[in-house]
Amino acid sequence: MGDAFRPVVIGVDIGTTSTKAAGYDVDGGQLAHHSVGYPLDEPQPGYAEQDARHIHAAVLESLRTVVAELDRPVAGLSFGTAMHSLIGLDRDGHPLTPSITWADSRATRQAERLRAAPSGLALHRRTGTPVHPMAPLSKLLWFAEQEPVLFGQVAYWVGIKDWVLLRLCDALVTDHSVASATGLMDLSRLSWDAEALGIAGITAEQLPELVPTTTVLPGLTAEAAAATGLPRDTRVVVGAGDGPLANLGLGAVAPGVMACSIGTSGAMRVMVERPGVDPLGGVFCYALTEHRWVVGGAINNGGIVLEWAGDALAPELGEDAEEELLALAALAPAGSGGLIMLPYLLSERAPHWSALPRGAYVGLTNGHRRAHLVRAAMEGVCQQLALVLASVRGAGNEVREIRAGGGFSRSPLWRQMLADVLGMPVRFPAGHEGSGFGAALLGMQALGLVPSVDVAAELVHIESTAYPDPAAAATYAALLPLFSELYDALVPTFTSLRRLAPGLSPE
């Protein structure tokens, strides 16, 4: 078949800070791509929200640009999205609220109260979503208690991808993957959970229709077709959450193969064939397809920690100082001379699923210098991921291989440090890192262009492997229990600091 006739699927990744669209052929080749950014608004402490209209405009622009660059017809679109977003709509589908993102922590008190309730852990295990302020369930409680008039005016509660699809295709649907990250869906039944709805104070009729991730919508509205340059009968695959799709993008689709990603935040996920959460509730469980689920944990603090280190510890380096910071960190030894950093600058998620913690340096002496502080910050990110790995294993899941991607993977120091801290070889695929490629692969399965998403393992090629250095790995193995113990030891301090926080502004 000539190239001009080979099918192309556009994967659209609706992220926290940008939307990326890219066209792929069935061999995994990327033919065109475009990204459009938008702001994350923080009008008050703990708020992290966006204007949904800006994101819709970014989707249209990214699609329009990619379509113009392609020299062949588009077989379909397929979507991925940042998980845990929440938007309230009126009866006509117009937003009454901003898009409240996963990073928003305004519902901390509601989440803590629900988590401490007798049904809290059972709710987590039944829905797969930790009881945490990131979850739409907790956000709905906040709206009910803090904005009751607005709460009563909302006709539909949706996620950002749901709203974009409503604008593009005039269909109010949400996929099982995104729904499994709301805290509102029963994993075993793939239906809205009656108890969760009762806690949230909403009805199933206020939520989108639940559909499989491979559901194909028949086409675009006339307005969307005109704005993107696509035919109205372009098929649109509903798609999934960015976490499960990132596993596809890294080729981590077989049981036992873990995907690790570090961007601004970070996550570790392994595919399983049946849903389930460990008895202690240390992991999440989100859907991908009927027979593919991911179990894992996300952390709030990834590359953002290195950015903070540059701003706070080496401001003279200016912006775009990543290479200089990494060179500085490389001057310090593994273990940073006994200096430990809890990297909870943006609070934290897995494996404790509490919004309470704050960052801390422990073990500081007059022998430590700036290089030690920067390296300890990076090590803290890797050690937090090691705790997530332990929780995934503690949930009864085998992890025999780790594949990693994200912005950090460009750095040899980050690569080696991750392998040393995890105590396992870490494999780095070439090219397609991220949920955009995963969305395209899922779309290819839905459109019958590939037999299943399992082809990801064949299409994603390993570029390099980082092997643990025995001495460094032994150092980190000795420090990890101390790192883990510090969280529990500092909970009373975190609690007191939160109580005092209103009078202790950093400004």
Automatic annotation (TrEMBL):
Residues 258-446 form the Carbohydrate kinase FGGY C-terminal domain. Residues 9-249 form the Carbohydrate kinase FGGY N-terminal domain. PROSITE patterns: FGGY_KINASES_1, FGGY_KINASES_2. Belongs to the FGGY kinase family. Keywords: Kinase, Transferase. This is Gluconokinase.
